[in-house]
Design a protein that fits this description.
The structure holds two protein chains of two kinds. By secondary structure, chain A is of the alpha+beta class. Helices cover about 25% and strands about 25% of the residues of chain A. Chain A is built from 18 helices and 33 strands. In chain A, α6 (about 225-235) packs across α7 and α16 crosses α17. Classes of the chains: A alpha+beta, B alpha+beta.
Chain lengths: ~775, ~160
Amino acid sequence: MNTFADPTKAVMNLARRDARDKLRGRTRYTVDHVTPGTLHAFLLRSQIASARIVSLDTSVARKMPGVRGIATAEDAPGMHGIGIADHPLFAKDIIRYDGEPIAAVAAETLEQAKAAVAAIIVELEPLPAIVTMAEALAPDAALIHKDWKNYEVLLEGAARGGNVAWEAKVIRGDTDAAFARPDVEIIDSCFRVGRQNHVPFEPRAVVATFEDGRFHIQTSTQVPWTVRHVTAKVLGIPNSQVRVTVPPVGGAFGLKFDCSLEPFAAILARATGRRVALVNSRREEMLTCLCRENAEIRIRSAVTKDGEIVGREATVLMDCGAYGGEQVFLTTMTAHTLGGNYRLGSVRLSSRAVYTNTAPNGAFRACNGVYNTFALERHTDEICQAIGMNPLEFRRINVIGDQDIGATGQVFEGNVLGPMLERMEQLKQKMPSKRALAGNRLYGRATTVGTWFIFVGPSAATVNLNTDGSATLVTSGVEIGSGTMMQSLPQIVAASLGIDPSEVIVKTADTDASGFDLGVGGGRTTVSIGAASVAACEEVRKTILTVASEMLQTKAERLVLGNGRVEIIGVPGSGMTIAAVAKRAQELFGPVAGSGAFTKPGIPAMAGCAMGHFIDAIDIPVFAVHECEVAVDPDTGHVEILDYRVVQDVGRALNPRAIHGQIQGGVVQGLGYALHEEMSLDGFGRIRQSGLETYRLPLAQDVVPVQIDLYEGGPSIGPLGTKGAGEVPILNVGAVVACAVANAIGKPVHELPLTPPRVLSLILEDSHNLDLEHISRKWEENTIR
Amino acid sequence: MSLQLDVNGEDRMFYGDPMTPLLDVLRNTFLLTGAKDVCREGFCGACTVRIDGVPTMSCLRPVALLQDSKIVTIEGLGIEGDLTPLQQAFEDHDAVQCGMCFPGMVMSLTEFLGRRPEASREEMKEALVGNICRCTGYERIIDAALSVRLALEAAE
């Protein structure tokens, strides 16, 4: 019995069922659930990056008008984190970043809560702040976590020490021998990027209640099960006391891939017995955003005259801010991003999450990959210049293909990047160059490749077949805007059961109703929840066919599901409705339901290659080829994007129109990163950009329509051969814009974003070779030994 | 202080600080949550409403200045909850993602298309200078808006 005799039945440009209400302002996001009678919470946040708390006095604040509850570190004894539990909910004795929560107040109005926060007396002893990674790694640097050795380790096997929160290493082959070869050119490049703020239009927000001994947390999140677990961990209660539900999420992009505000609201709800809302102001979102981290990179390659990469060594410093958070996990990704794209004879990578006294960073769409692809692709162009090879030719002969091994020794299946480069050539030939639009400005063009992956892992699904012929899909998926819950999941279930997608009810996450899920991110929803849904549908389908077989006196093998009916193959109209079968089944056995689960196939890496990694090999690689044309104004340094093209590996495009929408949106977010979105820190460790006046987002006039070619057929273990398509569009944008600008101005580009002042200084200065002295050319010196 | 306001053709009373931004009155007092509170600085446009026909960022308007004005919010568009032609075009073009910016987009573009139905693609982009979208990359929003004009022309 094959569920998908014809997988193309699932392919359609299904419209979004949530569009109408969103367009009429009727959709109620978490921020719209702050109804009358709800208490308003506000956080007392540190105004200094590093200090010792001498005393904390809330007695005056507690007596202020309207105040119903105040929480401090005493109310949240537990520590949380990824890999290491290094993060308390409230600063207790030590303040480690500007903006760190010290206390939380719930009051009848937000103004009353703010007034009470202002009345809390905190006595501080300022300490020197470590603002940069260079300072944090200096031999005599103070420890940001003096007690790091005593923290609970949640994943064993990584090197840690001093201000290095986590170190992931890859060692495959003998790079010393490769670099010592007489026939190689050694190319050494450094790169530096700033932070990027997600700016989801809905800020992080939560509404919590505590009833009958359990918490109900309604929150704007991508990860309901993480919120459940972390809330329980910091409060020191069993996970089962926490229920998490998720209204429509007004944008996330990775920011909401971690628990953040939820435990504060939970504690205050328990303390007051009231419904408590906590919503970050835009200023708080800007100053404490779990940004895409700033990073510093050195890559060295040993390359023959023929363009063979015989050795590569790289070190990536990722600023995790005051607490490890996602960066601990993301050190893993360097192996697959910076270590990706190309065949390497030998390789050594060190990827380090470094503590600083700055706001913690987090996950952002194609985390780690965006800047590592920038660094790798610019470095690749520098290799081509050094050995005198055409960059496109170099890529053609070096990209990963069928049975090639990746950095950690995993074996890749199928030729994907090579054919995608050809498809890009065809796309370029179809549409003429926009060079003429550059006029008197400098013109540049570039093509880059990128490697990303689908973050698989556990998902659960239940499908209830209702006697009206509709089906209810119950999962922990949430709709963050990408449309997965509105389009791909109902399409998959509908095609599995032979019903119309409008007959598929998609229930959004409720941890009391649906099984565990790793969360909506990493391009995993269509793949992981989709696969669990297919498995659940398979059980339902078996029941339908068994019962229908008896009702129609026909063998199940001769039956087919479609258009809401069970038919005898080749005899349309011979059968009956699925609703009738569901009714009969319910009479015989009770309501029809199926459950399904999915995790990961576990592709092996080469033994001993990867150290301190959360994922040694990538289960579903995703590739991308981007091409762009730019014009650079030599007088102002302003970069205009003239044209932009994408060939993206999608496995199978279930909803091509929706994927086009994701690519256009992802590319534009990437253009912001490439050209003008920059979070910077002042000398005291405070983020300078506190609002949209100083943080410049892409506007309608900044963008061009992206020309898109979806590459289908690349191998994937996803249901129906799908891969996630929403995350990867941002991957190559910084890379391709930087390469095109470098080509236009004839100078190497080593930093993003390419703001007009930065580009102008590149044009005007004689030589501009970034050299990061705190990353040694001797690779071993960039590791904990 | 008590203020009388005309919101979506209905008289509404507000009791409170006259300096309260209209956005907060709409969302917190009248529970009209269609206008979104995003930047509160007048940059993003997600709180756009029409004041006497003019698209205006409601986060920057003290409510006391609006006693003689007609205020129309996203909830006041369309007839009996039906989509307007522009809203329908957004749905048909699969333009919506997270949706937070769309109430403001609809308010701005509805007024602009009424005033400049013949506007070019570039002029429409210019008209969106006060409305930021973080998800879509804009082009499909423009495609949809242009399709409204073409549909009108076809009908004529």
